[in-house]
Amino acid sequence: MGTTAEQKQRMRAATAALNSMHHEPPDGFRVVVCGKGGVGKTTVTALLARRLALRGMKVLAVDEDPQQNLAFSLGYPLEAADALVPLSRNFDYVEEKVGARPGEGWGLLLALNPDVTDVVDRFGVHLDEGIDCLVMGSVVQAATGCLCPENALLNAVIRYIRLREDEAILLDTQAGVEHFGRALAEGFSQTLVVTEPGRNSLQVALQAARLAADLGIPRRHLVVNKTRNGADREKVETFLGDDHPFASVIYLPFDERVLDTEPAVSALLDDPSPFVEGIAAIEELLLACSRSGRPAPG
Ligand SMILES: Nc1ncnc2c1ncn2[C@@H]1O[C@H](COP(=O)(O)OP(=O)(O)OP(=O)(O)O)[C@@H](O)[C@H]1O
Ligand SMILES: [Mg+2]
Predict the structure, then answer these.
(1) How far is the CA of 104 from the centre of ligand 1 (A)?
(2) Helix (H, G, I), strand (E, B) or coil at 32
(3) Which ligand is nearest to the CA of 253?
(4) Which of 126, 195, 197, 272 lies 20 to 30 angstroms, CA to CA, from 46?
(5) Could you tell me where the DSSP H helices lie in the chain?
(6) Where in the chain are the domains?
(7) CB 75 within 8 A of CB 267
(8) Which residues on neighbouring strands pair with residue 185, listed in sequence order?
(9) Multiple choice CATH, 27-87+125-144+166-292, 3.10.20.340, 3.40.50.300, 3.40.309.10, 1.10.510.10
(10) Which of 31, 45, 34, 44 is nearest to 255 (CA)?
(11) What is the pLDDT of residues 50-91, one digit of tens each?
């Protein structure tokens, strides 16, 4: 007996419903920070992590950049660098979990949904004041569906960390948008796109926001960092126009002290400044959005 048009229609509706449930990002503080190279993603992520921890939240800061910059920005000593191996280069862990080492795996059967619930305990760097930092390494071409062993592991890690409860998760990504895969949309409910006022980084910001929207990350905020004057602001407003994919746009001023204290950011929080006030505004916005749940459809 063949399938009727009505049955087909119902199957399609059920599949669509299952898919949307599967990709529904969780509530809670799950923020991915992205944007062009050098715009200030790591600086902003580290400051937010510090501020959230100061208000008593437990924070997991995840670094997708294999250079461990986020750990250093959070005050991890530079001389201890050798001790930090990004998960993507931890060949033993990759093999233990997915059944093949990086460089192998083509044609092998990889475990695509390994149990990685031990990852933070085993590899997280415990920083003071309630912050753990996990150096993950890059998700290479996840969007194109590359099934190499390290990607299988990193995707599983991204999917897992959203399940950690009572913890603010901040993911600092590498520059660009190529890494933006389905796993990110499954794990994160908000994205903070960082840009400078220049055209190039604004273009990347728009691209990132559109990808995030396509993947179903519901809340997208634009942070225009290193703004020097009103002309910068006008330039950004003109570029964006009225019809842009951001729920909010926040401006952070250029601040010499950020350069003076880098890579560590903690000292910046000791003195009030327009830059730190801007970070506080971003924090409030993210907290408000993470409390409010998903907007009602339609
Ligand atoms: N508001 C600011 N004023 C002045 N300098 C800033 C500001 N924000 C960030 N910087 C500086 O800009 C440089 C790049 O910042 P950061 O490393 O945070 O960028 P990034 O986007 O993470 O870079 P990458 O793409 O390489 O990971 C650093 O030297 C940092 O100190
Ligand atoms: Mg960075």
Answers:
(1) 36
(2) strand
(3) 1
(4) 197
(5) 5-23, 41-54, 69-73, 91-98, 119-123, 149-161, 182-187, 199-215, 230-240, 256-261, 274-292
(6) 27-87+125-144+166-292
(7) no
(8) none
(9) 3.40.50.300
(10) 44
(11) 999 999 999 999 998 877 899 999 999 988 877 788 898 899
Per-residue pLDDT tens digits for 212-257:
888 888 899 999 999 999 999 999 999 999 999 999 999 999 999 9
| Model confidence pLDDT, tens digit, residues 7-39 | 666 666 655 554 444 445 456 789 999 999 999
* Beta sheet of 59-63, edge-to-edge order: 125-127, 131-135, 59-63, 168-172, 30-35, 190-195, 219-227, 248-253
pTM above 0.70, yes or no: yes
Q: In which residue are the tokens 């999917």 written?
A: 159
Which residues, chain by chain, have CB under 5 Å from ion ligand 2?
41-42, 69
Q: State how far the Cα of 56 lies from the Cα of 87, in Å rounded to an integer.
A: 28
Ligand 2 center from residue 145 Cα (angstroms): 24
Reduced to 3 states, what is the DSSP secondary structure of residue 93?
A: helix
What spacing in Å lies between the alpha carbon of 226 and ligand 1's midpoint? 9
Q: Shortest CA distance to 200 belongs to which of 33, 41, 37, 44? A: 37
CA gap 84, 134 in Å, rounded:
9
Q: 94 CB contacts (<8 Å, ≥6 apart)?
A: 87, 88, 100, 101, 102, 149, 150, 153
In the chain, what is the straight-line distance between the N-terminal and C-terminal CA atoms, in Å? 38
Burial status of residue 12 (CB atoms within 10 A of its CB: 0-12, 13-18, 19 or more): exposed
Residue reference for tokens 């921890």:
53
68 phi/psi in degrees, rounded to 5: 60, 25
The β-bridge partners of 207 are: none
